[in-house]
Amino acid sequence: MPVDPLLAAPRLLEVGHVAHRLSVSPGKVRKLIRSGKLPAVRLGGLFRIREAAVDAYIDALPPAVEDDEPHARLTGAIAREERQIDHLLSTTAGHLDDLAGHPPANGPLRPGNGHAGNGNGHAG
Fewer CB in 10 Å around end: N or C, the chain? Predict the structure, then answer.
């Protein structure tokens, strides 16, 4: 039984169809074509992609994996921030204890003694 030549011919897909099939934008499909990652032909100035080329591209994609790496990075960053905050709090508490128990060597902070202003009521 002879095979119908139209059924045996490779099916050519438009960029929009391929974009929909890959769940990407048409611009991304054109970028894949220009980079050589997705072979295509030009017909009438427009790209056409063989269905087999799309299937091969899909088959070559790495398998999707459950990626906990972003969560681990975020958790690590939060832990680092918490350690920094704890350090700042303990350091600040130590400084406050020092100030509460020991006045500055030049006396209390007031205008005119070089600590809190220039003696005329203005800082600086």
Answer: N
